[in-house]
Every structure is written in structure tokens, then in C-alpha cells.
Amino acid sequence: MQIQYKLLPEDLRKPLEDMWDLSGKKIRLIRDQYDASNGSPVYTREGKYTTRGWTEWTQGFQFGGEIIQYDATDEKYFLETGRESTLKLMAPHITHVGVHDHGFNNISTYGALRRLYMEGRIDSCQWERSFYELALKCTGAVQAMRWTKTCDDGGFVYSFNGPHSLFVDTIRSMRALVVSHQLGHSLFSEHDQQISLLERMLQHIYSTAKYNVYYGEGRDEYDIRGRTVHEAIFNTNDGYFRCPSSQQGFSPFTTWTRGLAWAMCGFAEQLEFLETLGKNELESSGGRQQIESIMLKAARAVCDFYIANTSSDGIPYWDTGAPMLARLGDYTAAKADPFNEFEPVDSSAAAIGAQGLLRFGRFLSRRGQEEDGRRYWQAGLTVSRTLLDDPYLSRDDEHQGLLLHSVYHRPNGWDHIPEGRKIPCSESSMWGDYHMRELALYLWRIVNDGPYYTFFAETQNNSD
Q1: Cα–Cα distance, 405 to 427 (Å, whole number)
Q2: Euclidean distance between the first and final Cα of the chain, in Å?
Q3: How far is 204 from 197, CA to CA, in rounded Å?
Q4: I want to staple 301 with a disulfide (CB 3.0 to 4.6 A). Which of 221, 226, 242, 268 is the partner?
Q5: Which residues, other chains included, contact 132 with Cβ-Cβ below 8 Å and sequence gap of 6+?
Q6: In the predicted structure, residue 224 carries a pLDDT above the cut 70
Q7: Contact, 393 vs 402, CB < 8 A?
Q8: Per-domain residue ranges for the chain?
Q9: For 138-162, what is the mean pLDDT?
Q10: Cα 462 from chain centroid?
Q11: Average pLDDT, the chain
């Protein structure tokens, strides 16, 4: 990536304003045209949102995107639709014991509504706030139930694949455990055993850092610092790690870039959360110094890998080991080309990763590491500036998506390939659109000196 060091947040004001205008039109278009009886919208085909049965992990992004739109624009329509849909349709996601996606679905909806209440942005009665908080308490506990113990006295929240499977994605679902813990909740198991949601979150973070992130320390022949593996496989009889795997990447020994982006964003925002905790809260989990050192090491590695292995404008191809990528030559020296003939880009990975870069850069700068902090911060601004322009924003009035050139599951061949093209392009995804809005809200509050945006509502609500 060619980092634009002279780029300022204020330079993005007009592109952000334009994006919010487009975003509102897209939300209304989906409301007017999408048949909700088909299930949750997942990704577009020829500009129209369609569903895709795998797991129910995108509905919270739809309604959460509407709440974000209200957050940025104060347009009541988006609050009303997002809140009404959350109240009517999101309850099954709270008690869904079969997925690892609680942080995606429920923090994006119930969590966002509670945050707006805590910030004084919406009028609601005490009972409505209590309803949101009960939902958030429950979702964290239900998510924490999907637990596999590891041989090093740790563990992880396992993926929908089963108890053997640790996904790198799930680091962002740890938000559910965090908020539930903040609200004073615990998971109770057999014999009334009380289980700390904070400790489970930290153990999951540790397992992700240890087994899903590489550090160039000779773990295997493909140990390149900062690369991530989508899935880590364990023997559930004894908790020992067995091998890397991948569901959505090209192979276990290449880096699926959306998985990389989940790690970037997940580590960064959890480092921010740790700053809100008192010293004693972390003692039982090894202490602040040990926990932060693990997370800092992982965050630096994955952010550095992203910067080194993405295109010059900050947009990654879907996997850094994709088999036809070599046909593009040194793709890191040129702007990403979503219309090439060999391998698709993934703009959704860019939207997720940009937020991780910004948060991590800010975190380091606040710790006095200004040079490193500025590097990551400016890298995040660079990616954001690219996404806020053509060919990534969807300006077609009939296209329901907001962020173009998102990829879902390349190995399974799920993504639409337009007529006359050889690879997927020009389509959107619900998670890509949501994270574009979330990234834009983060920057919008920075540009307008608003409260600093975090998922943990009652903390860090002062801007820098």
C-alpha cells in the first residue's frame, strides 16, 4: 500500500456526505423491493439482494445499517425501521445456539440502540432500555456456551462447523461477551457454576492470537509474519491443536483477506475496550501487561501484513495466495483492478480492515507511539478514501448495494459473475455495506468532533 501521509480526516467530509446520501437511497430501495419472506438478504446478483442459506448471520447487518444511517443523519425513518425490525425479528438471534455470529447480529442492533440511548440520541423509556440490556446479557451468555477447552488451560468459542473449529472471524463476536459482561452478567452452567464472560472473551482472544495468526517464528513452512488462517482445527478429546484449515480462503496456507481484516478490527477494538477496565479485573486472566502484549503483537502483525500485501490504493484481492494472482504481476505496486480477468478483489475486507487500521493507529498514538500510530492511522485513511470513490461506491439508482466488488465464498462459486466477465465483480454484500457504513460513522464522528464511536456504550464517549 502506498500510504497517503498528507490525507486528513477533514478531506473526507464531502465524500462521506455523498456516501450517506447514497446509503439512505440504498436502504429505502431494499425496503421497497426486497421480499423479506425469502429470508435475510445476503448478497446481490445483478444488483438485487438475494438470500443464501448457510448461517443466519446477516440480518443484524441489515437493520444495524439502518440504525447507523440514523446515527449519522438524524433521519427518523431509519431509526424507526431499524428499531421496529430489531424488536420484531431479531429475538431468534439472541437464543441461536448454533452459530458464532452473536456479535455480528445483536451488537449491531440491540447494542447500537442501547448505545444511542446512552448517548442521549434517542428517546426511550427505562423499560425499553432494560429490554435492550436483557437481550445483550442473553446474547453474550448464549455465545459463550459454544465453548471448547484447549490443552493449555484456555479455550475458544467454536464456529458453526463444530467444537473442533476456531474461526478467525469470531474475534469480532467477542463484542457480545464484552457488553454482556459490562452489564454485570455471567454465564451459569451445571451445579450453578458461574463463568466469567470477560475471562472467556480473553481466552478466546488468546487462542485466536496463538493459533490463527502467524508471526514468522517457524511454526510451519508457510509461517509468514502477520498472515492468518481462517480456521484452526483441534482434537476435541484432548484440546490439542491439529492443523490449519480454511472454509473461504484458497488454502490453509494462504491468507483469506476478509479473515485477516476480521483479526485487524477485532484485536484493535478489544485493545480499546481493555483501557476501560480496572487493574483488578484482569488479574485472574494473567494481568494487563501479559494480555496487552499478546494482543499488541497480533494486531501489529496482521496490520503490517495487510499494508504489505494489498494493492497500492489499499484494496486487497480476496486471498493473497489465490492461484491466478501471479498473472497480475506485482499487484501491490498498482491500484486494485476489480475488472481484471484473473482474481476478484474483496472491498468488504477493505472496509473491515480500514477500521482496524484506524483504531489501532489511534490506540498506539494515545500510548505515545506517534510514529507507528500515524502509519496505521494514515493507512486506514488511505483505504477509506479509496472506498469512498469510484469504482467502489454504487451510484446506480437501481442497484440495491452500497459497496461494490465484495466477495462472499469464492471456493464455493457463490458469487455472481456478470455476463462477459470471468470473475465476480460489481456486486455487494450485506456485511460489506454494513461495515462501509460503520467505517463511515467512525470517520464521520471524527470529522465532526463527535463522541468517539465504540461498541461499548458507556465508556470512551469523549472525542480526542
Answers
A1: 5
A2: 27
A3: 10
A4: 226
A5: 110, 111, 113, 114, 117
A6: yes
A7: yes
A8: 9-447
A9: 97
A10: 23
A11: 96
